[in-house]
Amino acid sequence: MLAVLPRSLAVAVVLAATACRSGQTNSSPPSSQDQEPPILVGDLERADVERQVPGWISDAEIDGEAAAKLKSVPPGAEVTVIFGTWCGDSRREVPRLWRALDAAGSPLPFTLKLVGVDLQKTAPGLDKAAIDLKYVPTVIVVRDGREVGRIVESAPAGIERELLALLDGSKTGLITGRTDLGASS
Q1: 49 near 97, Cβ under 8 Å?
Q2: Contact by Cβ (8 Å): 82, 137
Q3: Whose CA is closest to 104, among 152, 63, 145, 136?
Q4: What's the pTM?
Q5: Which of the listed residues 45, 122, 128, 164 has the most CB atoms within 10 Å of its CB?
């Protein structure tokens, strides 16, 4: 039997099914002015994302003290940010990260790599299975060739604080706001 849903419920069902493909359901219906953002895939530069995906600027309050401390973490870590330009969680977290990095100033004592993924969370040269990529954004911190931790989808205490904790060694493992993945040490 075919069910006919009220328009508002039908929109909610579609949004629930597509929200970052991660199980989130707190998206609001698109306005008539909204346009689908371009899906940028592969190794990216921040300037390219900001130029090609309008609105990727955060006005979120950051912890300025934590952001400033990013400049003084032990050198040598590699930070890889895997995100989707189509994803609301990425749109919230990645510009906030950029804002924190701006506040820290350059040069930073760690490398930063940005990787855009498509709706299936794939990109050229990205081994999704090997890095156990399920949700975006995922921020992976590697030190001495070994993963020390990652932030997945959301950072409960703010991305600048959580990244600082992984980089300075005060936290390891998984950091996420998702209740179905567990928590960090």
Answers
A1: no
A2: yes
A3: 63
A4: 0.80
A5: 164
